[in-house]
Amino acid sequence: MTMKTWMKAAVALGALALGSQAAIAQDKTFTISWWGYNGEKLNANIIEPFKKMCDCEVVFETGNNADRLNKLKIRGGKGVDVIFLTDSYSQIGIEEGLFQEIDRAKIPNVEELYELAQAPQGNYGPAYTIGRIGVVYDADKVDPPIGSWNDLWRDDLKSTISLPGITTTAGPIVVLRAAAHAGVDPYTQTDEAFVAIEEIKPNVVKNYNTGSELVNLISTGEATVAVAQDFTMASMTAAVPSMTWATLSDGDIATLNTINIPTGAENVDLALEFINFVLSKDIQQTEAEQGVDAPVNKNVELTEEQAKIWTYGKEMIDSLNRVDYDKLNAAKPDWIDRWNEIFGS
Amino acid sequence: MKYFRSWSLALPATLAVLLLLVIPVASTIATTFGESAGPFAPYIAFFKSGFRRTVLWRTIEVALITTAISLVIGFITAYVIARMPGRLKSIAIIAAVFPLLTGVVVRSFAWLIILGKNGILNDFLIWIGAIAEPLSMLYTEFAVIIAMVYLFVPLMILTLVGVLEGIPNDVVEASISLGASPAATFRQVVFPLAMPGLIVGAVLVFTGSFTSYATPQLLGGERQMMMGTFLYQRAMVTFDWVGASTIATIMVVVTIGIVLIMSRIARRLNPMAV
Amino acid sequence: MTYRIHPALIVFASIVFFFLLAPLVIIIGSALSDTTYLTFPPRGLTLRWFENIFEMSAFRRTAITSFQLAFAGTALSLLVGIPAAYALNRYRIELPSWLSTVYVLPILVPEIVFGFSLMKSVTVGLETPIFLTLLIGHALLVLPYSVRVVSASLASFDFSIEEAAISLGSPPLKTFFTIVLPNIRAGVIAAFILAFITSLNDVSVSLFLTGPGISTLPIQILAHMEQFFDPTIASVSVLLMLVTVAVMAIVEATLGLTFLTK
C-alpha cells in the first residue's frame, strides 16, 4: 500500500467514525443514569414503549451508585435527565443539592404507591421499587437456623459468613447491627461498634462487593451465610436451592430505590413523564412478574409464587426497619477507614 | 529563523503536554500540600494508617515479584527466540506479540476463568489428584501476580529479543573460540551485554504493575487492594479527593524515582553506551 | 547466530508459549459454551453469546465510541507528534535536550494519575464535553508513541536530501510530503498501529472520564463483569482478539512483524 492510498483510507475511515457520532446527537435525547442490569428486559418493558411516547432517543449512563453520583456531582448536576439510585446514595445527592424537588401533581401515579415510596426523602424523587437487606443461609448446612442478627456472632459459624463490603449499599448496615449487638449507639460509640465487628471477623470467610461475587461465593460453597440484598436471592437459590432468607426477630432493613431529576436536567417534563410511566401499574406489574423489580404500586397483584422473591404486600413492608441515612452518610467516611483497618489488611 | 521554525513545529505537542498533562498532574500534587492541617498532613495520615501502609507495601511487593518472575521467564525465552532459525523465529514473535496487543481487560479476564473455584486449574489439579478440594485462588495476591506476569512477559520478551539480537555475533564466537564454555560465554559475555535491556524491561514491568488498575480490580478485588484500585476507591466511591491525590502523588514519586535510579544504574553498567 | 541451545531451554520456552497462548484459547472455548456460566472445556457449542453482544446496545455503542476515540486520538497525536519528531531531529542543536523527555511524560506519569488529574482539571474545571475530554486523554496517552516511533525512523533519515530538494527550489512543505514522509512511512504506520491499539485497550485513563451516553468498550466490559459472569464477556473478548489479528495482518503486510522487536 502506498502512503497516499493509506492516508485516503484513513481519512475515509475517520469521516465514517465521526459521522456516526454526529448522527446520534441530532435527535432529542433523553438521558437515563442507572445500573445497567437487566438491560434487555428493561429495554423491552420500559425504554421501547417510552421512546414511542416521547419520540426521542434514549441514552444511558451505567455504573454503580457511587460512580454515577460522583460523576453527576463533577458535572454540576448536568448531563442526565433522571438518575436511579438506592436511597442511601440519593440522600447524598439531596444533601449535595444535586436534585430538584418534584411537583407530585405532575406524576399522578404517585397516588397509587405505598406511602413509604411516595416521598421517602422529602419532596425529592419517589421510590420505584423496594427491597430488603437481611441474612441468607444454607438451610442444609446451618443448624440451628438463623433467627436474629445476633446469630451472626455464633461460634458455630466460624469461617462461613460473607459480609457486604463497606462501600456497598448493605455494608454500613453491618455496622448498625454490630452496634445493636453491642448495645451501643453506632454514631456516638463507634469504637464499641467496631469492637463488635472485630468479634465477628473470625466468622467471616470473605466479603463481597458485587452481586455476582456473592453468588460466586455461595455457589462454590465458600460461604454458607451472607448479609445480602433480596434481589440476589433468585440467583443464589438457582445455584444452591437450600439457600433460605432468614426470618429475623429483629427485622430486615428496608432499601428503597429512587428516581430523581438532577438540577441540571435538560428535559424536566420528559423526566416527569418518564417517572410517572415507571410507576404505572402496568409497568410495575410486568417488572415484578419478570423478576426485575419488586412493585411499590398498591394495585399490582402477584400470585404467591411470583411474590415469593419480593418484598411485597403491606404487612411485610410495614415490618421493615428504616435507616436514617442523614446520620449514616455523615459517619461513613470514618467507618470506611475503620472497616478497612479490620478487613483490608 | 531556524530557532523560530524549530519551535513552531514542536510547539503544539509541547503545549498539549504542558497544559493538559503537566498542569493537571501538578495541580493534583499541589492539592495535597494545601491542607489547613499542615502541609504534610495527608501524608502523615497516609503513613499512620496500617491499612494504607499495607496497600502501598502490597503494591510494591506485587510489582517486585512480578518484575523478578517476568525477568527470568522473559530472558530465557528471548534467548531461545533469538537463536531460532528465521521462520520459526517469526512464528515465536507472533505468538509473543499477539497477547501483547490483546487488551488488559481481556487478558485479566482469562485468569478469572482459569483460577475460579470451578475453574479449569482447579478441575485439572483435582483430576491429576494433586488436591482433593478446590483451592480458592481468586482474589488473592497469587492471582494478581500470575495475571500480571502474564500481562508483562510478552513485553519483556520483545524488549529482550531486540537486545539479544543486537549483540554482535563475532563477540560470542570470539569467546567460544577462545575456549570459553557456552555457560561461561553466557555468564561473562551475553548477560552483561544484555544488562541495559534487562534494566529497561524491569523498569517497564515494575512501573506497569505498580500503577495497574484493571488486573488488581478484577483478580484482587477489595481484599487485595493496590494503589491503583485504592486511588479509584478514594476518588470515586468515597469522594475524598485529597486522599486520592495523596495516593496519586506517592505513585508519581515512586514511578519517576524508579525510572531515574534505574536509568542511572543502566548508564553506569554499560560503558559501551553512547 | 544459530548455535545449539540446551534442550532444557527449548522445553522451558515451549512451556512459556503454552502459558502465553492457552488462556486465549480458553477464552475462545468459553465463548462458545452453551451454558449460562463460564466454563472450559465448553459444554455444547453455540454462537448465541455472539448474538447476545449485538443485541446489547451498550456493547455496540461503546465499541463505536472506542474506535472513534482510537482513530481520532491517534490522528491528533500524529498531527502534533510528527512535526515535533521532525523538529527534534532536524533542529537538534536549536532545541533544548529536555524537550524529548516532555513527550514521554504521558508514559512516565501513571495512567491512572493522569486520568484522575484530567478529570479534576478538565472535566470539572473547564466543563468540557465528555467525548472531547476522552479525546484529549487518549491523544495525549498515545503521543509518546507518535513522537518516539516517528523520531526513530527520522533518526536514520538523511536530511541533506531534503536540503538538496529545497535548494533546487522545491517549497519546504511540498518537500516534506514528497521527500521526507515517504521515507518515514514505516515509522508513521508503526506509530499509528501502536497508538491505535493502546487507545483501544485503555482502561486507566478512560475510567475517570466516561459519562452519560459515552463510555468505552473496556470500561463497559468491566462494568458488565461486576454484575455478570456469563460467556458474553468471553465473546466480546474474542471479537477484540479478531481486531488484534487484523492489526497484526496489517503490520505483517506493511512492515513485517519482526519490526516490533526493533
Structural description of this entry:
The complex is a heterotrimer of chains A (345), B (274) and C (262). In chain A, helix 7 crosses helix 14 (325-343). The N and C termini of chain A lie far apart (56 Å). Chain A has helices spanning 3-26, 39-54, 65-74, 87-95, 115-118, 171-182, 190-200, 211-219, 233-239, 268-279, 281-289, 304-307, 314-318, 325-343; strands at 29-34, 57-62, 82-86, 120-123, 127-138, 161-162, 225-229, 243-245, 253-260. The longest helix of chain A has 24 residues, at 3-26. Chain A is of the alpha/beta class. Helices cover 80% and strands 0% of the residues of chain B. Chain C contains 11 helices and no strands. Chain C has helices at 7-31, 48-55, 57-90, 99-108, 111-126, 130-155, 159-167, 172-183, 185-201, 217-227, 231-254. Chain C is globular, with a radius of gyration of 22 Å. Chains B and C meet through helix 1, helix 3, helix 4, helix 5 and helix 7 of B and helix 1, helix 3, helix 4, helix 5 and helix 6 of C.
Reconstruct the topology from this structure.
The complex is a heterotrimer of chains A (about 350), B (about 270) and C (about 260).
Chain A: H1 3-26, E1 29-34, H2 39-54, E2 57-62, H3 65-74, E3 82-86, H4 87-95, H5 115-118, E4 120-123, E5 127-138, E6 161-162, H6 171-182, H7 190-200, H8 211-219, E7 225-229, H9 233-239, E8 243-245, E9 253-260, H10 268-279, H11 281-289, H12 304-307, H13 314-318, H14 325-343
Parallel strand pairs in A: 1-2, 1-3, 6-7
Antiparallel strand pairs in A: 3-9, 5-7, 5-8, 5-9
Helix pairs in contact in A: 4-14, 6-7, 7-14
Chain B: H1 2-31, H2 41-48, H3 50-82, H4 86-101, H5 104-115, H6 120-127, H7 141-166, H8 169-177, H9 182-210, H10 214-220, H11 227-237, H12 241-269
Chain C: H1 7-31, H2 48-55, H3 57-90, H4 99-108, H5 111-126, H6 130-155, H7 159-167, H8 172-183, H9 185-201, H10 217-227, H11 231-254
